[in-house]
Design brief:
Blueprint: H1 2-41, H2 47-88
Helix pairs in contact: 1-2
Length: about 90
Amino acid sequence: MAVQVTEAEAAVLMLQRKRSGLVSRGRELADERVSVAIEVSAYEPGARNRLREINQELALLDAELRNIDAALTEAGRRLAIAQAQKEHA
């Protein structure tokens, strides 16, 4: 049973780290979007394409964050079950 708890805890930590990385990347892209949006409004060449790329990556990051959040919910549930089984063993 201890192995299950350890594995479940490791899964939760891995998902939390991955989520943190995605959130950090999202912040970086959001900051870049601000400066690129200004360039787009000033008709800077290539800025519109970069803005499109940023928006696409942000959309993918959002979807990935939703997936990670769902996985974290399930990992937390499994961890709770493993801990309860360990206590009753």
